[in-house]
Amino acid sequence: MNIEQTLEERGHRYGEYLNHAVITQDLKRVMHLTPNWSKLPSDQKETLEMIAHRIGRILSGDPMYHDSWHDIMGYAKLSADLLLLKA
Question: How far apart are CA 63 and CA 87, in angstroms?
């Protein structure tokens, strides 16, 4: 598969790139403006940003695509598991 085919496939699944980018960046902007953002460790910030990315895909593309929802659970579990290790 060449890059054009990949981009076309992803566009069908996740929606228009510019639309997805606006949604995702707006979500991240709100997160970054909260009082607790600066208190979070890097893994939790990354988890929240990756979840925002998946939410952007869901809202701009195919909301019935299981993998997007599954990814959200996976990222949340990574940070939740790290919290248990620190306890």
Answer: 35
